[in-house]
Structure formats: C-alpha cells, structure tokens
Write a structure and sequence with these properties.
Distance between the termini: 85 Å
Largest sheet: 9 strands, mixed
Strand order of the largest sheet: 2-1-11-10-12-13-14-15-16
Strand content: 15-25%
Structural class: alpha/beta
Number of domains: 5
CATH class of the largest domain: Alpha Beta
Helix content: 25-40%
Shape: elongated
Number of strands: 34
Radius of gyration: 33 Å
Length: about 850
C-alpha cells in the first residue's frame, strides 16, 4: 500500500529527484524512476536469499539513501522492517535481534561490528565487504514491484523500550501507515514541490513517516544530512533549497537561542526596535492573519534559504515560547502529537488556527478523547482509529494493558479546551507525587523555570526536601554576563521566580551538572537516568575522554597557568575543559587569589572582570594569550598575600561611594530609620535581643550574623544600640544598591554596595579601609540567604579580613526571620524574631579556616541557646 502511492508519484514525475544525500561537494541523487527501479531490484534480490512475506528484516545503519531503499524494498515484498538505532550498544543489538528473529539485516560498515559474532542471519552490507553486497542485490534490473500487501499485513516492528532487558516492539501494519499518511495529506501542509530536510534518525516512526512515507507518496524531494551542527544545517538548507524541516523541539530551541543571542548582542536601541517589530508581527499574525516577518527580519530568513517555509515539530512537546518567538520572526511552525503506537501522528495544530502550547485537534480519521477527566478536566489521552498499532510483538499482556475497546491509552495526561484543542500536562508515569500527596507535572514546571536565562537544561525530580532540580547552566550566557558563581546565581534566580508559586511547586534543592543531561535520540529527557545521576552525588559532573585541547596545556603559557592552579586543584589532573567552579572548586575568594597569582606570574595587570569572565581552564589560557599578545611582559612567579592585597587602598571611585563621617542630616535620617524599624520589629515580631553587653563600644570589629532572609540586616539595625549603630557599615550587593538612586540611599544608610562577582578584591579592600578607620563592619559570612532554614557553610572572607587586620569578630545568631520572610513571601509574617550577640572572637595566630570554623560553631551555639 505504501509503495502504491510512491509508484503513482514516479509515474507523474519520473525524473524528479526523490532522495538526495548531502555529502562532499555534490549531492548523491535518486530520481523517482531510479527509486522504483532500485526497490524492485532489491525485492528480487531479497527473494533470492529466501526472504518472503512476514519475514523480519532488520536495518542497522546511520541515515543514508540505502536505509530508505532497504526499508521500502522490505515492506514492498511483504516482509517486516525492523529498524534499529545505529547508536545501540552491541548488547542492545543482540537483545533485539534475538527478540525479532530476523532472517536478514541491512547494515553499514560503521555498525557492522555491533552484530553478534557467528550469527546465522543473512548480513547485507551497504558498503560491501565480506557479507552479501547490497550492490549485488541491485545487479538484476527489474521494473515491476511485487503485489501490494493487504492493509492488515504487518509492515514494521519498532522497539520503544527494553533494549537491555525485556524488549517492547510496536507492530504497525500497512493499513496503519497508509491511513496516517492519508490523514496528514488532508491537512495540505506539504506538496510535491517541497524539499524536506531529514536530520532525525530514521529508526523512529516520526522521521520515517515525515521523511519517507509522506513526501515520497506526494512526489516531493527528501534531502538527507548527517550533521546537527548549526552552520552545516543552514548551509545545506540554502544550497539544497530546503522548504520544510522535520525536527524536534530541542533543535528548534537551539535555533531560536542562536537567533536571540545574536539580537542580544546588539546595541540597546536596536534591541528595543527588534522587540517592537516582533510584537508588531505577532499582533498582525494573531489578529489579521498577516505575516510580514520575512520583510522585517530578512537577514534571519536569508540564513535558512529562499525556499524555506515550515518548521515541523514532533517527538516531544514544543515549548510555547519557542513557538511564539519563531512565529513572531515570521516562520511557520506546525506541531503534531502522537506516539509510535499511533503510526505516529494523532493530533495536529491546524495551519490557519494554531494555538501556542496546544497539540492541536484530532487528525482526520482519528478519534482522540480525555479518559476519566477529574474535576479540572484532566485525564489520560486516548486514541482510536486506523492508525493505532496492531499490538506489541509477542506481548499480548502488555497490549491488553493499553488497549480497551479499540482505544489506545497513551499514558499522557492532558485536557481539552472549549474549542476542541488538546493540551498535554505530563506523563502519568512521570507525574511526581510528593510525600505530602501533592502532585506535580514536571513538564509544566520545567517550562516555567526554563525562562531563567542562566539555565540551559533542567529536570525536576522528587528529593528528600520535595521538588529538586538537576540543572545544566548556560555557560555561554554566564561568560557573557561575567557571572562566575553559577550555583549561587541559579539558586537565587530559581528562588525569586518561584516566590509566587504554591510551596509544593517550588524547587527546594538543586545540583549543578556540567555536561548535558541524558536524553533520547529525539531529545526527550531520560528521567530515570537523570534521577540516578542526581542521587549518585554528581557522578555526571565528571568529564571523561581525551582532552581535545591538551596542546594548550603544553604551551609556555599553559604550563605557567597549571602552576598557578596547583594550590587550588588538590592534586587533580587538570584538563582544559575543567570548570573553575564545578571541577576545581574555586569560589569567589579562590578566584581572587588565582587571578593575583596569574598577575604576579605573568607580570600583567588583568582587568577586574577577568576572574568572572573565565569559566574554564581553556578560557584562562586563551584570554591570557590575547593579553600577552597585546604587549604584557612575563614576570617572576611571586604570590601576593592577602595581607598585601588588603593593605592596598581601594580606588578613589570606590571610596566616594561611602561616607565615613555622616553629617547631621544623615544622622537624623539614620536615627529615624532605626526608630521606625524598632517600632515595626518590637510589636509586630516581638523582637528580643540578648548579649548586648558583648558588643565593644568602639570599632574596629566585625559583626557576623547568620543569614536567614532579607529581613536580617534591618533586624540588626533595629537591635544595635545607637552609639554602635551609627558607626556600623553593612556590605550590600550592587543588585540592590547599584542603581543611580539606590546607591545614594545606600550611602546615606551606610551600606557599602559591592559587586561580589566581578570586583570581590575591591570589596575586600573597601572592607579593610572601613575597619582601618575605626568603624564596625557587618558581614554575613554565608554569602547568601539560607534556602531551607539551616545555616550554610561560612565563607573564609570574614576570616581573612579579621586575621590580616587583627580585628575581633562578634558572632551573632538570628532566629525567626526565615519564618518571618522565607523565600517566596512578599510580606513579612508576625512571628517572633530574636538576635543573640556572642563574645568577641580574637583571630590571634589562627589560620583563616580555623577562624571561620570557630565563628560558625559559636553562631550555632548561640542559635541553639547554649551560651
């Protein structure tokens, strides 16, 4: 049945290109006449090797024209095609071949070694060799195809799971595939003039339908490209005249990211204009059906070629933001939904009336319903029609579990809106049921959290504290924004974004991974594998394999850089891809020490942003190479100590940002602020303070409280006696106090705004400057607020300052502010808060780590009321 339509295409346009493979300078082409002739010859050749109706024939190869011809000849003969993933391991191939019991296998040279040794299966090699040569099967010219198989005859077995254990093969008939193809044709999305780009592995039913059955039935052209690199794809699209791309959401998300990152590098005025034009075209398309995107964004469209018109998305759910942005750029995006069991398409978004985020309406000839909807209208998506599979191969029990009265129960959860459009909310098997009984659909929440710019990938799992996340940062974005501390930055963004969500939907824990999370060939998260890696305490963070840029480490610059890394690496074997934070453990202070060491080693003054602008060892070497090429001279390898760093006075610009001796007006304002805060904390939060007698009346000394919430600094201000409060300065981040107005406020209330990412050394010097002037400095040693109410590890910066300036530290325990203003809350609750001041700790001859350790212990004791 499949070949009948292809034969009709060949009779209409015999010399038209059916299949072409982009390789080298010239594509390898097959016309429709050559296609039908090759299929007929292969049918005859297979018959001579004893292959007949109902026999299984496996295909194990990367995408190539021979793959398509092998598939078509198998089904034309009435045999059953068994496509296998070219990336399967030897063990997986052996398991599936044992289950399918094929009589023959088409194989490429690259996959030949995956076949079991001594197999009795007839091996047909696309690249000849010692097996049956594919070219020999074509040696006899034949023009007539065998009689068409019946609709109920089996056409293919496609394995969806169990490759290492209990295989599950989906049986699709000729009627399944023909009906699905006919339903898509009725949508009038593509026609015989189209050229479809085949990028996805053909062993999946989605690209097999979209790149073999459908286009060849219409008489269109299919272009094969075995590269997923952006430049290769765009070059192929222009040169081959691609009009339709068959892809997956992951591919389109990458294309969209590349376009908008380039826009983000433009001047502010250009970005504002682009944003306005995007909104304009989006409004015109949604209200009038008018698309002027090609005129507005001509340079973007030129990259995809003059003939390009449609992105076709399937295999997974397309992010609504990706759909919206590509649409506003003027592209047409069509999304379908289905599974291997539905041949594969069950629903499709109509071209003229699409809905972002929806999987559309039922395909012509197919029924779709929501089974047993709950009070919100959500239930399991069920499909019935001629496209639904014949069952699972050799698995009647598994078939019975998903088939009821002709309905296939997909395992996907969703709802149907008033217009008849279906929306997916998650997989029933993937739904996370928390210990509280609350249910979370991970797809929904992952889409919500992915709006964070610093994130590249995110997968939610159930953890000990509730919802937790495996995260891969967008290192390119972090590098561009000079953000060195990926972990803390992403945690803060997640907290800020989730503050208005119900508590059970907030991420309560996260782990940062450097390498991509495990996904299927179509880009779906392998959630069980991600969970294993997450619970294995970061095993995925380790990088394996050869170092592609090892020669950089052997260079003169590389060897010196390695010497500078030695005190921080703990003896680790360093490779160029090592991330300074995730692999080598350099926190903000460690980066300062490392940069100072580089400056002394190379005799070069590095920019303030150097420490945050380099994320990997390779970045360090390449940026240093550029600086030295610009004229910096090498110097002696002498390490600058923290004592020497802190003796240096901060720049005049930084000193101008603070006022050491406030005038009467500022004093009046500070006193008024303190009075206001006391009037709030005393009656509203029943504030109690103990240990006031432990506070020295004059500086210099450091006050070091734990950090529970944004209410901590105001609480300390309210608790301090006026004589001490008037000489106390607070370190604050430029995120809150870096603006033209907020910086003036900070100066008036004695907050020192510092950029802890890019200018930590300057922040340390400014802190030392304030203490040298006899003032009191309040530092929160955790470096950020607690995420779960427990005290986090103290950073050693407070120990460095205390030791090198020989000033005491007053430990301070804050309690209640986490409950008062925990993450996600926008208004404080009236809960009891308390402040306990401990006895000053003298740094003496202790090292930095011991000072910080003792400080931490004292704060914990104060918090637990043990002093």
């Amino acid at each position: 049945m499949i070949l009948t339509k292809i034969q009709e295409s060949a009779s209409r346009r015999p010399e038209h290109t059916a299949i072409q493979m982009m390789e080298g300078t010239l594509p390898r082409r097959y016309t429709y006449r050559e296609l039908i002739g090759s299929v007929a010859s292969l049918c005859r050749g297979l018959s001579k090797h004893g292959i007949g109706k109902g026999d299984r024939v496996a295909i194990l190869s990367e995408n190539r024209p021979e793959w398509m011809l092998g598939y078509l000849s198998t089904v034309a003969l009435g045999a059953v095609a068994v496509p296998l993933d070219a990336q399967f391991t030897d063990k997986e191939v052996a398991v599936l071949l044992a289950n399918a019991e094929p009589k023959a296998v088409f194989v490429s040279a690259a996959c030949r070694q995956k076949l079991p040794h001594g197999t009795a299966i007839t091996i047909i090699s696309f690249d000849n060799g010692d097996d049956v040569a594919y070219s020999d099967l074509l040696s006899e010219a034949v023009t007539e195809l065998p009689p068409a198989p019946a609709p109920k005859d089996l056409a293919a077995i496609l394995y969806t799971s169990g490759t290492t254990g209990d295989p599950k093969g989906v049986m699709l008939t000729h009627g399944n595939l023909a009906s699905n193809c006919a339903g898509i044709v009725e949508l009038h999305i593509i026609d015989e003039n189209d050229n479809l780009l085949c990028l996805l592995p053909l062993h999946h039913t989605y690209p097999a339908m979209g790149c073999i059955v459908l286009p060849l039935s219409l008489g269109a052209t299919v272009t094969i490209l075995n590269s997923l690199k952006g430049p290769d794809i765009l070059a192929c699209m222009r040169e081959a005249g691609i009009s339709v791309m068959i892809g997956v959401p992951q591919l389109y998300a990458g294309l969209r990211r590349a376009v908008f990152e380039e826009i983000g590098r433009k001047p502010a005025a250009v970005r504002a204009l682009v944003s306005l034009l995007l909104s304009l075209n989006g409004a015109l398309r949604s209200t009038l059906g008018m698309n002027i995107g090609k005129q507005l964004f001509g340079k973007v469209h030129e990259r995809f070629g003059a003939r390009f018109r449609i992105f076709a998305s399937g295999g997974a759910r397309l992010d609504p933001d990706v759909y919206t942005d590509l649409t506003r750029l003027g592209f047409t995006v069509v999304e379908g939904y289905g599974l291997t069991e539905t041949s594969p398409v069950a629903t499709f978004n109509p071209l003229k009336r699409q809905k972002a985020g929806s999987i559309g309406v039922a395909l012509p000839g197919v029924e779709v319903r929501i089974s047993d909807p709950d009070e919100t209208g959500q239930g399991e998506v069920a499909v019935r029609g001629p496209n639904v599979m014949a069952g699972y191969y050799k698995k009647p029990e598994a078939t019975a579990e998903v088939m009821q009265d002709g309905w296939f129960f997909t395992g996907d959860l969703g709802y149907r809106d008033k217009d008849g459009y279906f929306f997916l909310t998650g997989r029933s098997k993937e739904m996370i049921v928390l210990s509280t009984g609350k249910k979370v659909f991970p797809n929904e929440m992952e889409t919500f959290y992915k709006q964070i710019s610093e994130l590249k990938e995110l997968c939610l799992i159930e953890g000990e504290r509730g919802l937790e996340a495996a995260v891969v940062p967008d290192f390119d974005y972090l590098r561009k924004m000079n953000i060195a501390n990926a972990r803390a930055t992403i945690a803060a963004r997640i907290e800020d974004l989730g503050k208005d969500l119900p508590p059970y939907k907030r991420i309560m824990g996260l782990r940062i991974f450097k390498d991509p999370l495990p996904v299927t060939r179509l880009g779906k998260l392998r959630r069980s594998k991600v969970r294993e890696l997450y619970l294995a305490e970061g095993a995925v963070e380790e990088t394996t394999g050869p170092d592609a840029d090892a020669e950089l480490l052997e260079s003169a610059i590389g060897r010196k850089v390695l010497a500078c890394f030695a005190p921080f690496s703990g003896g680790k074997n360093i490779v160029t891809s090592d991330n300074l934070e995730l692999d080598l453990g350099l926190d903000s202070l460690g980066r300062v020490e490392f940069v100072v060491s580089l400056e002394q080693t190379f005799g070069a003054t590095l920019p303030d942003t150097f420490g945050s602008g380099v994320l990997t060892v390779k970045d360090v070497i390449l940026q240093l190479r550029e600086l030295l090429a610009a004229g910096a001279a090498g110097g002696a390898s002498v390490r600058l100590s923290w004592a020497e760093i802190l003796r240096q006075e901060p720049s005049e610009e930084l000193q101008e940002g603070i006022t050491l001796d406030a005038g009467p007006l500022c004093r009046m304002g500070q006193a008024s602020l303190r009075l206001l805060l006391r009037l709030i904390f005393l009656p509203y939060n029943r504030m109690t303070c103990i240990g006031m007698e432990n506070l020295p009346l004059k500086g210099p000394y450091i006050i070091a409280p734990n950090h529970e919430s944004n209410g901590d600094a105001p609480l300390v201000v309210a608790a301090l006696p006026w004589k001490i409060g008037r000489q106390t300065f607070f370190l604050g981040t430029t995120d809150y106090f870096g603006g033209p107005v907020s910086s003036r406020i900070a100066k008036a209330i004695q907050v020192i705004p510092v950029d802890m990412e890019t200018k930590l050394q300057s922040a340390m010097q400014l802190s030392a400057h304030v203490l040298r002037k006899g003032k009191v400095l309040c530092i929160f040693p955790e470096g950020g607020r607690t995420r779960d109410g427990t005290i986090k590890e103290f950073k050693k910066g407070v120990g460095i300052i205390a030791k090198e300036l020989n000033v005491p530290i007053v430990p301070v325990a804050i309690g209640g502010t986490y409950q008062m203003l925990r993450p996600g809350m926008s208004f404080p609750r009236p809960v009891h808060v308390n402040v306990a001041f401990g006895k000053p700790l003298q740094p003496g001859g202790k090292d930095y780590d011991r000072i910080v350790r003792e400080l931490f212990d004292e704060v914990v004791k104060l918090r637990e009321g043990k002093q």
